[in-house]
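Dear colleague,

Thank you for sharing your sequence with our group. We've completed the structure prediction you requested, and as agreed, I am returning the results in plain text so they can be pasted directly into your records. Please verify that the sequence below matches your submission; if there's any discrepancy, let me know and we will rerun it promptly.
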Amino acid sequence: MDPDATQSKDYEESASDVIKTSDGNYVVVGTSISWEWPMPDNMDDILIVKLDGTSGDVIWNKKIHLRNYDRATSVVEDNDGNYVLTGFTSSDDANKSDVFFGKVDPQGNVLTKKAITITKNYDGGYSISKTADGGFIIGGEAGHSHNEDFMILKVDQNGNKKWSKKFSDHPDNSAYDAIEASDGNFYLVGSKRIVNKLEDIRIIKTNSKGNKIWDKTFGGDKDDIAEGIIESEDNTFVIVAGTFSYGKGGDVLLMKINSDGEVIWQNNYGGDKLDKLREYDGNSVSGRHLTKTPNGGFLVSGNSSSFSSFGGLWVFKTNSSGSLLWNYSNKDLGGAFAARQATDGSVIVAGPGSSGDTGDLFVVKIR
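Please find the predicted structure tokens below.
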């Protein structure tokens, strides 16, 4: 619940990412939207919640306010044990926004909150990952609202901008994830609008300075949108995407590529109904839908109508070759935006849930 709320319906909360912290607990980031009328100055605020790793009890629950509309999309723990997050910050939530960078210590004290400007228009961060030099790489978008470009932003450990790159092409291009590979190059994944308002998976590889090495698209004759990328073994990479070109009525796709962007394998997951990673409604929060498991497999979080009526929480795990190991669904909870597996085999899942007229942030632990 929002720290300022007296009852659940005062605010709508959702989670976009969850991590297991070095002290054995969990940290969840997301957004709190006020349902007050008239609307307050802080209509949307960032929520960051720390949970006890054993009981799930709230250790602390904080709200971060910078402008009228602030929302967090991704979080990572830095080398000092602090929690570093990115997202969007805006005064009007329509024509002008900036990348949000924040840092919170293990006790919940906000150390840093700032806006990083890429263009004069609509900028934002969808993912944040650590880099070998102690800084961070942020993947996102830059440009006009609903007419964005792929964006990659390199910052130091305090969120000071080192450099950024914008990759212009057709309208509506967004990078939903960015990582530094073991060889020092960067990979960005997202979507690229092709023709007739259809989208393809887009993957860009850059060098350590953000200069493009290659730029490739993958997909069929319908919408295919990449949401996440992780490095696997031997400088290979696995991408997760929502696909309407393959499977039945909307599925999830895992694709493994080598460092040259050549496909090694590609698999579909889902049933006969609509299965997806998230709502595809423009500038929505994406989430961290793909993570690596301790034994080298892959964990995917999304939303399924095939395995859960009316589209509930959906998490599935594969082995390192992409073969399905298990499915988990829960019709009482909304779509899963992030999931992580611990070394003991337990899985923590976070996302948006329903509660009367508003939504609540949920966290669930499964085995």
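Summary note from our side: The first strand starts at residue 11 and ends at 20.

Kind regards,
the structure core
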